Amino acid sequence: MAVPRERLDIGALEIHADSSGHEGILTPAALGFLAQLHRRFDATRQQLLQARRQRQAGYDAGGLPDFRADTAAIRTSDWQVAAIPAALQDRRVEITGPVERKMIINALNSGAKVFMADFEDSSSPTFANQLDGQINLRDAVAGTLEFQSAEGKSYRVGDNPAVLVVRPRGWHLNDKHFSVDGEPMSGALVDFGLFVFHNARALHGRQRGPYFYLPKLEAMEEASLWDEVMAAAEDDLQLPVGTMKATVLIETLPAAFQMDEILHALRGRVVGLNCGRWDYIFSYLKTLRGHRDRLLPERAQVGMTAPFLKAYSELLIQTCHRRGAFAMGGMAAQIPIKGDPAANEAAMAKVRADKLREVQAGHDGTWVAHPALVAVAQEIFDQYMPTPNQLSMLRQDVSVSREQLLAAPSGTISRAGFDNNVEVCLRYTAAWLDGLGCVPIHHLMEDAATAEIARAQLWQWLHHGGLEFSDHAPIDFALFDQALAAHTHLLRDSEHPGAARADAAAALLSALTHADTLSDFLTLPAYDQLA
Ligand SMILES: CC(=O)SCCNC(=O)CCNC(=O)[C@H](O)C(C)(C)COP(=O)(O)OP(=O)(O)OC[C@H]1O[C@@H](n2cnc3c(N)ncnc32)[C@H](O)[C@@H]1OP(=O)(O)O
Ligand SMILES: O=CC(=O)O
Ligand SMILES: [Mg+2]
Prior knowledge:
Elements: E1 13-15, H1 28-60, H2 72-76, E2 93-98, H3 101-108, E3 114-118, H4 127-142, E4 146-148, E5 154-156, E6 163-167, E7 174-180, E8 183-186, H5 187-205, E9 211-214, H6 220-236, E10 245-250, H7 253-256, H8 259-265, E11 270-275, H9 277-287, H10 307-323, E12 326-331, H11 341-361, E13 365-368, H12 374-384, H13 402-406, H14 415-433, E14 439-441, E15 444-446, H15 448-464, H16 477-492, H17 502-514, H18 523-529
Parallel strand pairs: 2-3, 2-13, 3-6, 9-10, 10-11, 11-12, 12-13
Antiparallel strand pairs: 1-7, 4-5, 7-8, 14-15
């Protein structure tokens, strides 16, 4: 629930960082806008985070997520989301990437229909990364974005760039560099507030937004908060109600039970839902962390054809299309492999298979992590989706039960899978602490969501006790400590991103893995250490 609007007052907003170079973004008016967002909406955010903790306590005590009784009427009644703008009618391939200057230009020029500029899973939220990202996006919107590489290559945005969609941080993250009345600000409100303050009117004038991807929601009330925030911002910026559009990632297990409710909460501005598969797997692990009968096999065995993931994606398609919203697919983790044509072809074949599954299931578009994958995904969608979208595929054949969404697939845990989880989590955390939010490891894209899977699996396998590898050797903490020490040594002496942070990352991963409770997010304790 919003508190009444107050006079613009930035007296109480403080910036705890050296903001030189960012004055054009951190103008007094922009800071006043942020302060106002905080005062109106942060109390509600805190209540919603408390509600998450209460629900998790219920799951830890043996409860399981379920469809809500109090919202049954939303699920059973007939209603549709608002009309989808022309610029978002065809979203067959969307490229995602961090808000780094060169990458933004490459993404806008990639041939993808949409570019999701990511302040979230693929960003390490240093003050410089987030604020430089705002400068880069402001320049992109103004049409002045250019870049000159150290090697002398010039970059500029070409004709017909991808449509820009921005993903702010989730509700759980504070931004320690901004406080209002002595309280830290929400990272989500900082990212959203600065972006709309500087760009909303220009984008609206061109009928190109502003458009958002909303991450990690767990309940319809969290979607309602975004709706209120956007409505208030539209009012302040004198834009028509519903100008700001949202696509919501369904990437938590609790949210899978509230897809209709989330669409309904945002029905005046929602454009679709997206299968954020990596965070969804992480959320399954975290939500059911206390349930020994629902442990997952090693992450290489948990693909989208696993029954619980197939059920979730089909329910998403059915729910979206019934309401006139797009059902977006997700990210295959494979990226191009240079210098090994056979390995590259095998990786591309996996991407093609994933996109084929998505388009045939009824998804209206998909994500790719790298410019070289745009054509790969587009070829499949062009062949199987000759229309701009497939809203008319209602998937009335689908019937998904609570049990199907919750059923753990069978599988095994190998020594290699255990070791890979240690390596990936260590290397990713080290890179993140060094300011890099997305890295290639063994030819796969690894970001905050994929690293969380590795971390949560290690914790579960070790804390439930008595588990064995496929060769029947016991899984125990001594093995974890040995693997962590070995990988820390290797990373320290390597040229991998984050090598200089190997020890800090190892200490964090060790503490999180040995702790009695699975920490809600890796990025919360890691953020305390981020320079
Ligand atoms: C779970 C989720 O949330 S998924 C969404 C979040 N994750 C992402 O967005 C992943 C984004 N992808 C990336 O960050 C990168 O592709 C990585 C880290 C996986 C691999 O990066 P690299 O090893 O640097 O890739 P590579 O060397 O092949 O890059 C080749 C070129 O493509 C560019 N490029 C690579 N990925 C992207 C991208 N996603 N967007 C724009 N440009 C890109 C590089 O900048 C480079 O440009 P240049 O030739 O002009 O110098
Ligand atoms: O954000 C996407 C995901 O898969 O997580
Ligand atoms: Mg995610």
